[in-house]
Amino acid sequence: MLEKYNKWTLDFMESWKALDWEKTLTLLDKNVEYYENPIDKPCSSFEEVKELWKVVEKNQRDVDYTYEIVAYNEKYCIINWQMTRTLTKDNTKQQIDGIFQISINNKGLCTYFKQWRYVK
Predict the structure, then answer these.
(1) CA 52 to CA 58: how far, in whole Å?
(2) Per residue in 80-106, pLDDT tens?
(3) How much is the CA Rg of the chain, to the nearest whole Å?
(4) DSSP secondary-structure letter at 120?
(5) What region does 91 belong to: left with phi over 0, alpha with psi -120 to 50, or beta?
(6) Which candidate, 30, 47, 38, places its Cα nearest to that of 111?
(7) pLDDT at 113
(8) Mean per-residue pLDDT of the chain
(9) Which stretches in the chain have pLDDT values below 50?
(10) How many CB atoms lie within 10 A of CB 4?
(11) What is the fold of 2-119?
């Protein structure tokens, strides 16, 4: 189980680092319950998730990350991640500390995604 969560997280973070939003989307089930922000409603469709990720290649660069799986069971995995990136619009460097809560199906696709993040 831990191997499955670790592989998914590594693939997800590597696709983000590579700014490859199309690869990122291949890691998500088409019916994923996707929360960009934990206090908002989930995305209403996969197309809405796609629109969130399409802008990544245009609005950031120099992405680097670390992560640690802090808890998991049959249903959920909790991942603490840290990232540095540069926003292309104004060359602002960001440091982010975040949490993902995910569920993965038998095909290795994420069916539930919720994130919390703090930009330092």
Answers:
(1) 12
(2) 999 999 999 999 999 999 999 999 999
(3) 14
(4) -
(5) left
(6) 30
(7) 98
(8) 96
(9) none
(10) 13
(11) Nuclear Transport Factor 2; Chain: A, (3.10.450)
Tell me which residue of 107, 92, 99, 85 sits closest to 19, measured CA to CA: 85
Amino acid letter, residue 38:
P
pLDDT at 21: 96
Tokens of residue 91, six digits: 């060359």
Amino acid symbol at 39? I
Instruction: State in Å, rounded, how far the first CA of the chain is from the last one.
Output: 32
**How many of the other CB atoms lie within 10 Å of CB of 99?**
15
Residues in the chain: 120
Provide the 10 A C-beta neighbour count for residue 27.
Answer: 19
The amino acid sitting at 21 is: W
